[in-house]
Amino acid sequence: MTLAETVSDKTSVLLSVHGLTVSYAAHTVLRDVSFEVARGDLVVVLGPNGAGKTTLLRTIAKVVSPKVGTVLLDGHDIAKLPVRQLMKTLSVVPQSEGSVFSFTVQDIVAMGRTPHLSPLAPLSQKDWRIIREAMEATDVWELKDRLFTELSGGEQRRVLIAKALAQEPQLLLLDEPTANLDLHYQLEVVELIQRLNRERGITVLAVLHDLNLAAMMGRRFILMHRGRIYAVGNADEVLTPQNIQQVYGVPVVVTRHPLNGKPIILLAERRIPSLRGVKVHVVCGGGTGGEVMAMLTAAGCQVTAGALNRGDSDFEAAQLLGVSVVEEQPFMPISREAFERTKEMIANAEVVVLTDVPFGWGNIVNLRAILEAAKGLVVVFNPETIAERDFVNGEASTLLQQIFATKQVVSVHSLSELQRLLVNL
Question: For 130-152, how does the pLDDT look when each residue is reduced to its tens digit (9 = 90+)?
Fold first, then answer.
């Protein structure tokens, strides 16, 4: 799904970017970028350094000219709009104001009225009213006589947003609005942007580096990778372990905030990086598979798991890691349907990993699935302890013996052994 596909009523589209390609000399920074932003939306652009995020904002703001493609703002091609007219609809909040000399806060905010003034014309009463409203909306009115250079980073950021508001924009572009701020000011800026979007209906397109702040602030997300759009949509569609690992090159766990339910992205330990694309199915349960799945996903493997009952700790771990899992009802034996889907996943895997999971009548069919469907290597954790984990009158032990007799099997006793084995495949 694209942002364009989510905007069904074209009259609600404020910003349209079509086929944008931007180059600096021989280096292409943006490649065929297309998306749309609806009026009143709050969209966050994400991606690692060099992904093209800031260049995208600079192109939309007409600071950079594209090699190919168009940017339409409220239906108008920005390439044909005078800068003064463009700035009546769009305002930009940079990471810093650069050299501002000894201007007061009120002077800085008043600069936002420039697009609306005739050359050399003084500010009118209406202009001063708008300036004050912008300062009050951003809680900087009490700072009006302070020098901008004497303010804290958080205060300066609010002043720059006030300046942008004084332009009376429909679209607000923000480049790293929380950069170099402590937690207090980060939250303050995020809440301010959300409030302006919600109460004033200002459309926001913001670049952020912090994925967790982005998840807190945004409603829609654009994830960029090497100058292209890699993923677009809501948080659940974009902020997935697979997307983040592919774009940022680091393993993550995505869980939920206990209060607001929004995604929380946690870094996982970087493991072996040399298994990208290897298909591995994990048969586990009862907490025996979480570290195994985390290691495999961190290594770039295509991991599946199951069958597992909902509520099992390994089922929860699979969900957090973004692992595709065959699901069964809580406390229920694995059904015929789940058994067949497990066999399909096992048959599709290059490697099957069997953890030292206890076996009862509810999950014994997972061993049968390995016996019937495994085509590649089967890695078994601690096979010598199977009798201690066999609660089905020896059937688990018998099935494991048959697996050893008919499949290509290797025994391991630790994660490090599993890592070395897979690296040397």
Answer: 999 999 999 899 999 999 988 88
